[in-house]
Amino acid sequence: MGSGFSSWCTTLCLVVSALMCAQDGDARRVAKWQEEDKDKYDHTDSSVHIFFTIDNLKTGKSLPICFSYQSSTKSYLLSREEANSIPFSSEKLPYLLELFSFSKDSPQAKAMEYTLKHCELEPIEGETRFCATSLESMLDSARGVFGLDTEFKLLTTSSLTKPTPLQNYTILEVPQEIFAPKSIACHSMPYPYAVFYCHGQENKNRLFEISLGGEDGEKVEAVAVCHMDTSQWDADHVSFRVLKIKPGDSPVCHFFPLDNLVWVPLPT
């Protein structure tokens, strides 16, 4: 019990550090979504310069990549108790808009509606899917996927400095594959406080850690995933337009933004 609790606390600290979430003031403060930043709230407007094919995983290969924070608004992490005290449902959207003082036609309202509806989608066959509104709920859900007695680690894309929004990056070394029968990727979502959409498919993804060098000298230690089976994906998925392929044609790979998390179990 003691060692398990200690391990849980250590993992929690690692997540907070990875997200750089040491905010000033009380956690009850939510993100101050300013009207002048309204172009940031459209989650669907995220950069498309993260997709590539598995054939591109070669040393010396150069790719145009945009390493950014997927949710560019400043969101605050809530405790489980705080998060559970706030409804998280599209049915409650009118109440939530009133709670956060957003008009129903505002960019913030559209972003909240997008996130709530995305979190309510049914998983496809063989997929695990959940949304976490606190770190505690994220870790508990991950434990439920991997097994209560399974230890797991966190992978993130990292850079020593803020990367240039879009530039060509060269693969510096042979990509290192992370062999894991299961993995869970958690993507930050636009919302007044920190919300993560997490999903994974058993034995249908391949994870890689990739060292990249930018044109400006920036070095990024990136995490990327290749989805080996896309036959059940929506035909309108942006990756198909970018890569000019159709569902099931070939694996779709993408780099993870800087504020995303990937959980993998440790070898037993």
What topology emerges from the helices and strands here?
Layout: H1 2-19, E1 51-52, E2 62-65, H2 80-84, H3 93-100, H4 107-119, E3 127-132, H5 135-146, E4 152-155, E5 158-159, E6 167-171, E7 176-178, E8 184-189, E9 195-201, E10 205-214, E11 219-227, H6 238-243, E12 252-255, E13 261-265
Antiparallel strand pairs: 1-12, 2-6, 3-9, 4-13, 5-11, 6-10, 7-10, 8-9, 8-13, 10-11, 11-12
**H and E order:** HEEHHHEHEEEEEEEEHEE
Estimate the strand proportion.
25-35%
* Total count of helical runs of at least 4 residues: 6
* Rg computed from alpha carbons, rounded to a whole number of angstroms: 19 Å
State the domain count. Answer: 1
Unreliable segments of 5+ consecutive residues: 1-11, 20-29, 34-46
The count of β-strands is 13
| Average pLDDT rating | 82
Q: Helicity level, as a percent range?
A: 10-25%
Taking the sheet with the most strands, its summary is: 8 strands, antiparallel
The structural class is: alpha+beta
Large-scale geometry: globular
Gap from first CA to last CA = 19 Å
